[in-house]
Structures are given as C-alpha cells and as structure tokens.
Design brief:
The chain is mostly helical. The protein has 14 helices and four strands. Strands 1-4 form a two-stranded antiparallel ribbon. A two-stranded antiparallel sheet has the order 2-3. α3 (about 45-70) runs parallel beside α7 and α4 packs parallel to α6.
Length: about 350
C-alpha cells in the first residue's frame, strides 16, 4: 500500500489563512518572545537607551507612513520633514495660543497633515517622477517658512516650549512612560498599515505602482487612490511630528531641515523598498547609526582630536552606507533577513542550482 507523500513547506488552502498576520507556530512563539522582550526592556535600560528606543519608535511611525506612499503606492515625496514640522507646529501653536490639551492637539495635527496631504497629492494627478518630487519639496520649504515666521513674530527665538502633556490628573513624563506610549503608537501604526495593504486600497496602490495605465484599465480609480495615499501618509507623518514635539518639549524649525527628509528616504531604501518590516529595520538602522559612528570614533586612540570633525564624519559615513546598499544590497536589510531566514528554513540542506541554470 503506497503512502501519500507529505507536503513540504507552508501552504495556504483558504482565504482565511491568507489573511492571517501570524501563520505558523514558530512565528507565534517568536512574536511572543519579541513582545515580552519589548515590555521588559524599559525596566532594565538606562535613560540613554530609553531615549534611543523612543527615537526609534518615532522614526518608525514616519518611516511606515513614507513606505505606504513611496514603497507601495509608488509616489515620490521629498516633503516628509515639512509634514513632520506641520504636525509639530500645529501641536505647539494650539498649546501656546489656546492651551489646548493633548487629546485635542494630536487629532488636530493629524487633520492638518491630512489636509496638507490633499495639497501634496494634487500635483501627483498631473506630475510624475522628478517633477512630483520637486513640487513636494517646494511645499516642505513653505511649511518650514511659515513655522519660522510664527517663531519670529511671536518672539520664540529658541523655539516653542511645550509643557508635558496631561491626561486627567496624570502628567506624561519620563523616558519609561514615553517608551510605552510611543511604542503603542508605533504598534498601532504598523497594524493600520498591515490592514490597509491587505484591503482593496492596498491592492489598488500595488497596481498603480506596477503600471498606472493597466490599473486604470482594470477599473481602479487612479486619481482617487493616489490622493488617498498622500492623505493617509501625511496624516500619520504629522501625528509623528506632534508626538515628537511633546516628547522633546519644544518645537523649532531647525529640527526639520531637508537632511531629515533624506534620512527618512534612506530608512526605506536601506530597510528595503516595498516592505513594512524594511521601514522598521531602516528606522532602527538610521536612528542608531550616528551613535554607532560616535562610539567607534570615541574608541580610537586620541579620540578628542576628532571631536571637531564628528559631524562631517557622520555625514560622509551616512552617504557611503547609502551608496553601498544601493549598489550591493538593493533589497536592503529585508533582503539580508530573508536570506538568513531561508538558510535556517533549508538547513541542513544546502540549495544547489540546477545544472545549466543561473545562480
């Protein structure tokens, strides 16, 4: 009696399985261990390490928002820093002028970002590529200019100081408290992005990214979905800017330079274009990279001699890393992770190409 051969690998046999976020037992155990480590981290970390983790959470929200727009919908934007500034200044101005509480300023900043997303998105209906990038860059300078004018006219030469937010009688302060709050916002943003991409909207973005003409022929409202991508991405980015303002306790135009936009673009390139995991890995890498360079220079003999050139070294090293990823690893950190994952899935069997096939 012959036995039926057993299938090897992970196979989906229904739509319900296809919609699962966590498919296998190994993934469930790994995710559980990771979440437990995240929850335990603030009780053992130093204040400096907590600050780094909080910066990563903030960067993750902005990187996920940009990944939706560029990595999935295929729309180029160089106005990310302007949107962060819009959210931060909305929260700061409402606090200074009206003493508005945090549960008012955060939704207001999100709405302001969505409205700017409409303005950002309208050129995408006519422009593509470099022309679209230049139009979003112009809006970035406009937002930063208006923020600088507000600071100058109100006499806030060093920036807008924001008090620690309060919820009822509870004041939100301290690195550990912010760790859980920012971590919750980052987790909620990730879940929102995951569900968006599994919906009809996400599939429409993928079709537009692949070929606009074909997407339109399939009955997809290209203009509406392009605009929606800008609105959702801009709203999430402005929310990240408002959270940044509350976390730092002040808002200043100096914090939202064009280099900040380049950093966010680097996050999705280094992490891996078209992957939410890539956005998170890129946010971790780009946020921690300057501190790693600083630590490496500090370990050199006579490190004090290089203290004056630390800023220039950071810029140069950042540029070199971007070039190396673009040339040697176009799939980014996600590509590295998938190769590691595939190695352990196939271990101890080594993959060998078929005779005559390409490697």
């Amino acid at each position: 009696m012959s036995r039926r051969p057993r299938a090897s690998g992970y196979f989906r046999t229904g739509y319900a399985q296809d919609l699962k976020l966590v498919e296998t037992r190994t993934e469930r155990w790994s995710l559980s261990a990771f979440l437990m480590a995240l929850l335990a981290f603030p009780f053992f970390a130093s204040p400096f390490q907590l600050d780094l983790a909080n910066q990563v959470f903030l960067a993750s929200i902005g990187a996920l928002a940009l990944m939706l727009l560029t990595g999935y919908a295929g729309q180029i934007s160089l106005g990310h820093a302007g949107l962060l500034a819009a959210g931060a200044f909305t929260a700061g101005i409402l606090f200074k002028e009206m003493n508005a509480p945090v549960w008012v300023t955060l939704p207001a900043a999100t709405i302001a970002g969505a409205l700017l997303g409409v303005v950002f998105g309208l050129p995408s209906l006519r422009l593509r590529g470099l022309y679209l990038a230049v139009s979003t860059l112009a809006l970035h300078f406009l937002v930063v200019y208006l923020g600088g004018e507000y600071e100058a006219r109100r006499g806030f030469s060093t920036g807008i100081v924001i008090d620690a937010p309060k919820l009822g009688g509870w004041t939100i302060s301290g690195g550990r408290t912010w760790y859980f709050i920012l971590g919750a916002f980052a987790g909620a943003t990730l879940l929102l992005c995951l569900n968006l991409l599994r919906s009809g909207t996400g599939r429409a973005w993928a079709a537009i990214h692949a070929k606009e003409t074909v997407a339109e022929a399939l009955g997809i409202g290209v203009a509406a979905h392009k605009l929606l991508a800008f609105v959702i991405s801009s709203a999430l980015t402005a929310l990240a800017g408002a959270l940044f303002a509350y976390y730092r306790g002040f808002v200043s135009v100096e914090a939202f330079s064009l280099f900040l936009t380049i950093q966010y673009v680097a996050m999705i390139i280094i992490g891996g274009m078209g992957s939410l995991l890539g956005a998170i890995l890129g946010a971790v890498f780009v946020t921690l990279f300057p501190y790693a360079i600083e630590a490496a220079i500090g370990a050199l003999p006579g490190a004090q001699r290089y203290a004056g050139s630390l800023f220039a070294v950071n810029y140069a090293a950042f540029g070199v890393v971007m070039i190396l990823f673009l040339v040697l690893e176009p799939l980014g950190l996600v590509g590295v992770w998938k190769r590691i994952q595939t190695y352990f899935l196939l271990w101890p069997f080594k993959h060998r190409p078929m005779p005559g096939s390409r490697r």
